[in-house]
Design a protein that fits this description.
Blueprint lengths: L16 E12 L2 E12 L3 E5 L6 H8 L7 E6 L2 E2 L5 H7 L1 E4 L11 H5 L14 H14 L15 H14 L4 E5 L7 H16 L3 E5 L12 E6 L2 E7 L5 H9 L18 E10 L3 E9 L3 E6 L5 H9 L6 E6 L2 E3 L4 H6 L2 E4 L3 H4 L7 H6 L15 H15 L15 H14 L4 E5 L7 H16 L3 E5 L3 H7 L2 E6 L2 E7 L5 H8 L7
Parallel strand pairs: 3-8, 3-9, 6-7, 7-8, 13-18, 13-19, 16-17, 17-18
Antiparallel strand pairs: 1-2, 1-4, 4-5, 9-10, 11-12, 11-14, 14-15, 19-20
Helix pairs in contact: 5-6, 12-13
């Protein structure tokens, strides 16, 4: 059955229920992950699943995909009670999940990734590469995905690789597609392309469960929304019948009067950082600005504008070709991150798991790793008691939620991982903190806590730089905003006097400022 939806995304009243979850519970040692959760999915709908980290979304998805089994409750798929014992059973039944971290083989072709394990063979029993490419091309065409099936996967951008993952799922005749944070690493134009494919799938009758922390994007594709909190399904509504404020309030279980906390910081007129005529060939072009004590300075711009590259240059992670960096009135040379650390500069990467944390190590070790000398006795012997004391101090100060200071960092939520990164740099006594996408992959309730933390750090007299692709974050958090366009500083704006439209006009190169 093909269900056609109009541009207004009228809720799908006629789509029959393909998946029904009734009073499902799941308990892990010490944790009630799901508590009598109920949920229905219709053919030809995009159904959003939202909630804070730890709300139970991922656990339910793992049960539906056969990774875990429910302790109690009933799951009906296409009218029959099912209990998937492994991923293969779920997949064979027609349920596919596309994780945030893609499950593809980089050195193989697009076609080979789509049909891996199911490659067509010639009569002689050898790989029929011509048929494989032809079948892949036909499938990609049906999905309106413009990719050459013979292309090696790692030659494609992440957005195109994601399309290959979707094609791979649909090649097995999947009727239910679960998408976990699919836009987290995509540009605006790439998101448009993905949403076009989602619309096409929906119109072909595919049922889609869409999980995302980026609530603002839901209005473009979602028919219904189910909200989770503390392992329970709180409500299910037609998306058109619920407001953003109601969604947020139900997610966090309390009213957030504002998405952003009241301003805590009051910038002084004391310059703690001066950047003069920074040039990095082909990337940064003659950029100059100042940062004041107690200020939160935003850096905005489209993907590829040089935002992260500017932050990394100031930290010393990327060498510059010319220009000056002045800290507290003194010119400094930043040839490496260690130079930045010595100068009191911290850079919190947008990819905290790869660049900010040792995820298989404990909280104590992560907090002290960048300044181990501070907790060493004579002869360079590490003091475990000093390490524990320091970790306890910052865990208390930053409100890091953990059952133990010896917890492995990878087991923490995204928000608590981010707080561990902040603790690491505070232990180094950093006076300038550069946050690159500080709330990427973090739920709305925890975002508020991160914003409060950034405000408190600025209030303490530190200088804060926030690099963000989310314009509401720039507008709600910062005092001034630098707008980059293709490596150039297009404008410096007082945030309270600007708008999303103005920032975008400079970011896109439409407006210029003398």
């Amino acid at each position: 059955m093909v269900i056609t939806k109009n541009e207004q995304k009228v809720p799908n009243e006629v789509g029959e229920v393909i998946l029904e979850v009734e009073n499902v519970s799941k308990r892990f040692p010490g944790v009630q992950a799901l508590d009598r959760v109920s949920f229905t999915l219709r053919k030809g709908e995009v159904h959003a699943l939202v909630g804070e980290n730890g709300a139970g979304k991922s656990t339910l998805m793992k049960i539906l995909s056969g990774v875990h089994q429910a302790d109690e409750g009933t799951i009906r798929y296409k009218g029959e009670i099912v209990n998937f014992r492994n991923v293969s059973q779920s997949h064979d039944a027609g349920i596919s999940i596309i994780y945030q971290e893609l499950n593809l083989i980089p050195h193989l072709s697009v076609a080979a990734n789509i049909f891996i394990g199911r490659e067509p063979l010639t009569r002689a029993g050898t790989l029929d590469e011509k048929k494989m490419n032809s079948d892949a091309s036909a499938l990609l065409h049906t999905l309106k995905i413009n990719i050459d099936p013979s292309t090696q996967l790692n030659k494609l951008p992440v957005s195109k690789q994601q399309m290959v993952e979707i094609a791979k799922a649909l090649s097995t005749k999947s009727e239910v597609l679960i998408m976990d944070e699919p836009t987290s690493a995509l540009t605006e134009s790439e998101i448009d392309e993905l949403f076009s494919v989602i619309h096409s799938l929906r119109d072909q009758g595919v049922a889609i469960i869409y999980i995302s922390h980026r609530l603002e994007e839901l209005k473009r594709i979602v028919d219904r929304i189910t909200i989770f909190r503390d392992g329970r399904s709180i409500s299910t509504d037609d998306y058109s019948a619920i407001t953003m404020e109601e969604i947020v309030n139900r997610m966090v279980g309390r009213k957030l009067e504002n998405i952003f906390p009241p301003k805590q910081n009051h910038p002084t007129d004391e310059k703690i950082l001066e950047v003069r005529h920074i040039v990095r060939a082909g990337v940064l072009h003659d950029i100059s600005f100042d940062l004041y004590r107690g200020e939160i300075l935003g850096i905005s711009g489209l993907m590829g504008a040089g935002r992260s590259e500017l932050g990394r240059a100031i930290f010393g992670a990327d060498r510059i070709d010319s220009g000056e960096v002045i800290l507290n009135g003194k010119k400094v040379t930043l040839n490496s991150p260690s130079d930045g650390i010595k100068g009191g500069i911290a850079y919190l990467s947008e990819n905290r798991k790869e660049d900010g944390l040792a995820i298989k190590m404990r909280i104590t070790e992560n907090i002290t790793m960048a300044n181990v000398e501070k907790i060493c006795r004579s002869m360079g012997v590490l003091s475990k008691s000093s390490e524990l004391k320091a970790a306890q101090q910052y865990t208390n100060e930053l409100g890091i939620k953990t059952p133990s200071l010896h917890q492995i960092v990878n087991n923490l939520s995204g928000g608590n991982q981010q707080k561990v990164v902040v603790a690491k740099w505070l232990f180094c006594d950093s006076k300038i903190l550069i946050f690159d996408e500080p709330t990427r992959g973090i739920d709305v309730g925890t975002k508020y806590a991160i914003y409060e933390l950034i405000g408190a750090l600025a209030k303490s007299g530190r200088g804060i730089i926030v690099i963000s692709s989310e314009l509401p974050e720039i507008l709600g958090l910062t005092d001034r905003t630098l707008v980059l366009h293709e490596g150039h500083l297009a404008a410096t704006l007082k945030t309270s006097e600007t708008s999303q439209e103005e920032i975008l006009s400079y970011a896109a190169g439409i407006a210029t400022k003398n």
